Structures are given as C-alpha cells and as structure tokens.
Amino acid sequence: MGPVEQLYSPGQVAAQTGFSLDTLRYYERIGLLDDIARNSGGQRVFTEDDLAWLRILRCLRETGMPIQRMVRYAELARGGDETVAERLELLREHDRDIDEKIANLRVEQEHIRSKIGYYQREMAQHRQSHASPTR
After folding, report:
1. Cα 104 vs. chain centroid, distance in angstroms?
2. CA end-to-end span of the chain
C-alpha cells in the first residue's frame, strides 16, 4: 500500500497560495480549477497537484495574464500532449507581454527618479537658504 495522499482544506489552500476562498470558488466556476474532490461532508479538498496548479495560476495572474487567457491555458492543459505546442506559444506570448511591461515600468521609474532628484535639490536649496549664520 502506497503513502496516503495529503489533502488540504480550502482554508489551508488559501493560506498557502494567497488566493481568497472567493477566488478559489470563482476559479472553479470559470474552469480554472477542474475536478476538485469533495470529502464526505461535501467540502472541497485539494491535492498537492491542485496546489501546484494554483501556484502556476498565481504566477500567471501576478504577471498580468488576463483571466480569459488563463482559462484558455487551463483548457489546453487538460487537452494533454497534443496541446503542448499551443501552451508553449501562449506562454511565449505572455513572456513577451511581461518584457514589454517591464520596459514600460523602467520608463516610468526613470520619470519617478527624476522627480525624486528634483525634490532632493529643492530641499537642499531650501536648507541652504535658511541656514543660520555662523557665529
């Protein structure tokens, strides 16, 4: 007899993944989570595989993948080996989107840094003009 698979309650999954219980229910409703088992009391129970899948979803979400594209990725993942090329292309497209977002953030960061420099110069001038005379 093999080892007993570890099962997790929705609360444990929420704590480990950072997804709220509402988000977990929503993800199940729209098809991002599939075949979530239930215990004898009808409560959802999650497996290690479910947790691994949720970590992927967290990564995609945190990097700005739209929900519709996440759903498409989930559909492809359920499609087995024949969808590997499509999944690869979807992830490559997302990777390009991330590069573009990072480049845009760098431009905006430079704007913020120039503002920081401006305020630092303003403060330095203000301190110099209000310095008490030496005795």
Report:
1. 18
2. 89
Closest CA to 35 of 26, 44, 23, 48: 44
The DSSP output letter for 50 is H
Interatomic CA distance for residues 32 and 54, integer angstroms = 9
Express each pLDDT in 54-67 by its tens digit: 999 999 999 999 99
Give the helix/strand (H/E) hosting 45. Answer: strand 44-45
Provide the token pair at 36.
């979530």
In this prediction, residue 68 carries a pLDDT of 96
Residues 6+ apart with CB under 8 A from 69: 60, 90, 94
How far apart, in whole angstroms, are the C-alpha atoms of residue 6 and residue 17?
16
Chain position carrying tokens 């969808």: 83
Q: Is 69 helix (H, G, I), strand (E, B) or coil?
A: helix
Cα–Cα distance list, 41 to 27, 38, 45, 129 (Å): 21, 8, 10, 74
Residue 1's pLDDT is 60
Q: Which two tokens stand for residue 16?
A: 């480990």
